[in-house]
């Protein structure tokens, strides 16, 4: 089968949603604080989360329905739990990613208006794109954004490597004190993304099938693998950037959105030269704008479908209701907590990690159950990797809870 850029879609949307705070903020901070010492954590968590993310498009392409429909078949209790968890976290997650995007917009395009105003502008632009263009426009935009993001990030890493005179150490580090372990859990919580994005991916896969009849099980998994590998490569890239530019510099990142964003760009340009400003700025802004756009689409899409399944109602304007609710809620939270970007991100990432075992277990049970055609069920290798992944996620959650 011949694959083209047109065949890609949900996997790139997954990448757009994943490559955000986990990469620009957490990966850069990991490189700045630990050098390349946490690469083991990045690679390990990507490996053990892989099957549970893959089960989203796998189930959708095999059955023609989303993971949410599968959860419904497994029992209302699972769907209700998902509904509550999503409602409890979606505003915090959207606010966290929007805060960083607004800060970068202020740094990149000018601080002649406040970050609060930038937030409203960014949310308004994303709303307009999603309400008017819906999935078709999102599918086209994300391909452009991911290409720009990938090229600009690679250019930034290569430039940093060429300009660096400090020997690079690949010695790996195991955090020891509670503060370092807390960061490790937050780092892994959103690396490459929260596991509930598997639900979003299954919803995007259904939309892709409506618009592209050639999008089948084989192309769905190929599309997913392209997106997943992209998140790993760019995650490593941002760790390198943090390491090459800031490690052992004695500087620390601010918790304020505006200060952090300016500091991030200025840090790179101070090391690489003013000419690199535009490359770094584009890489940083496209990273966060893609996340803001995709999360603003995905959470309302998921809440709309969950509402339909739970209350057995068509609720035709449900997507519009939830996207407006999320947009307004984000703006309200932003105005109240704009100076606490670090705190918001920490809450969101830790919640994502602690709920990861729940999503891992139900995704695995669903894909292995009678609700999934036998041809789409996991191979022995995927079963083993799934078991290891579940033990890994539960073990790290228990470890974190013991140090609180």
Short key terms for the protein model shown above:
Amino acid/polyamine transporter I, about 400 residues, mainly alpha
Mean pLDDT: 83
The total domain count is: 1
Span from first to last CA? 51 Å
Percentage of β-strand residues: under 5%
CATH topology: Amino acid/polyamine transporter I
Pattern of helices and strands: HHHHHHHHHHHHHH
CATH C-level category: Mainly Alpha
From the alpha-carbon coordinates, what is the Rg to the nearest angstrom?
A: 20 Å
Instruction: Please name the CATH architecture.
Output: Up-down Bundle
| Fraction of residues in helix | over 70%
Unreliable spans? none
CATH superfamily: Amino acid/polyamine transporter I
Number of helices: 14
Structure description:
It is a single chain. The chain has 14 helices and no strands. The model has no long low-confidence stretch (mean pLDDT 83). The protein is 79% helix and 0% strand. It has helices at 10-18, 21-34, 39-63, 67-74, 76-109, 115-163, 178-189, 197-211, 217-246, 257-272, 277-311, 318-337, 341-367, 380-403. It is globular and about 55 Å long. The chain has a single domain, classed as Up-down Bundle (Amino acid/polyamine transporter I), CATH 1.20.1740. By secondary structure, it is mostly helical.
